[in-house]
Write a structure and sequence with these properties.
Structural class: alpha/beta
CATH architecture of the largest domain: 3-Layer(aba) Sandwich
CATH superfamily of the largest domain: NAD(P)-binding Rossmann-like Domain
Bound molecules: 5,10-Methenyltetrahydrofolate
Distance between the termini: 43 Å
Number of domains: 2
GO molecular function, one term: methenyltetrahydrofolate cyclohydrolase activity
CATH class of the largest domain: Alpha Beta
Largest sheet: 6 strands, parallel
Strand content: 15-25%
Strand order of the largest sheet: 1-11-8-7-5-6
Helix content: 40-55%
Subunit structure: Homodimer.
Number of helices: 10
Pathway: One-carbon metabolism; tetrahydrofolate interconversion
Keywords: Hydrolase, Multifunctional enzyme, NADP, One-carbon metabolism, Oxidoreductase
Organism: Galdieria sulphuraria
Length: about 290
């Protein structure tokens, strides 16, 4: 059986580090970091995630500001909401929960968030800075940063290793590939048009699965001893559960668990790390605003 990478425990450690830091910030400037969350519509998954983020803020002493807008909200109204938070000195991070309704131009909204408050790291300028390995980086997207943090805190050597990233999304696959590259991995990015997917994935000393397809990765896709980071959060029907569903990753955990060297579980792997990194980014943003960094 592979060693489990306990994302929940690692995230708890990081949250405790941040809690201590927030207290120090408050002691020195008399103010605390603030995070604004914007939820559009009433998707159950988005509602749950935003609730979890706000609760995590509360636990570490970050003040949270929350706005809920109806599914029918216009792009202009949503932009107004972002502008208000851009101008609010008590807000150091702005998170507009994705996905947004079809009639709204996501890139336009993400571009409107002040670069200094873009704690998701989704602003085109922040992505550009990340891509060019800028000497003045701002925010690194939370899930990719969490993946790297899991590897580092599990003493996984990245330099010189072959890292295979399954998926090329703007929020995970692409940025995590860049971060691995910056740490001198040899990076292979796979996607829906990749041929011979199983054998390409099997090249990876590190495999990051971020496609959003339940249990897609099977044991013959994995190099024996590889470190597997499962970013997928897929809910599948399960009649034995009270809720009627359960969460599984992109990796078929039971099929793969004894071929890999290390693996993250779902839930309890990358999900909690995403939230911990959001708090990290928000705290860093506040320190910058308070002149403490
Ligand atoms: N602007 C924006 N920023 C995001 O960071 C963002 C987003 N939009 N849209 C959706 C995705 C998804 N996401 C997750 C965060 C935490 C868990 C998490 O903590 N999951 C728990 C399980 C939670 C449960 O039980 O439902 C776990 O994996 O252990 C999952 C998914 C953030 N996202």
């Amino acid at each position: 059986m592979a060693k489990l990478i306990d994302g929940k425990a690692i995230a708890a450690t990081i949250r405790e580090e941040i809690r201590v830091e927030v207290r120090k910030i408050e002691a020195s400037v008399g103010k605390v970091p603030g995070l604004a969350t914007v939820l559009v519509g009433n998707r159950t998954d988005s509602t749950t995630y935003v609730r979890m983020k706000r609760k995590a803020c509360e636990e570490v002493g970050i003040e949270s500001f929350h706005v809920e807008l109806p599914e029918s909200v216009s792009e202009e109204e949503l932009l107004n909401c972002v502008e208000r938070f851009n101008a609010d000195p008590a807000v150091h991070g702005i998170l507009v929960q994705l996905p947004l309704p079809k009639h709204i131009d996501e890139e336009r909204i993400l571009s409107a968030i002040s670069v200094e408050k873009d704690v998701d790291g989704f602003h085109p300028l922040n992505i550009g800075r990340l891509a060019m390995k800028s000497r003045t980086p701002r925010f690194v997207p939370c899930t990719p940063r969490g993946c790297i943090e899991l590897l580092v805190r599990s003493n996984v050597n990245i330099e010189g290793k072959c890292a295979v990233v399954l998926g090329r999304s703007n929020i995970v696959g692409l940025p995590v590939s860049l971060l691995l590259l910056h740490r001198n991995a040899t990076v292979i990015i796979c996607h829906s048009k990749t041929q011979e997917l199983p054998s390409v994935c099997r090249q990876g000393d590190i495999l990051i699965a971020a496609v959003g397809r339940a249990n897609m990765v099977k044991r013959d896709w994995i190099k024996p001893g590889a470190v597997v980071i499962d970013v997928g959060i897929n809910s599948i029907p399960d009649a034995s559960k009270k809720s009627g569903y359960r969460l599984v990753g992109d990796v078929d955990f039971d099929d793969c668990k004894d071929v890999c060297g290390m693996i993250t579980p779902v839930p309890g792997g990358t999900g909690p790390m995403t939230i911990a990194m959001l708090l990290r980014n928000c705290c860093d943003s506040a320190k910058e605003a308070f002149g403490l960094s």
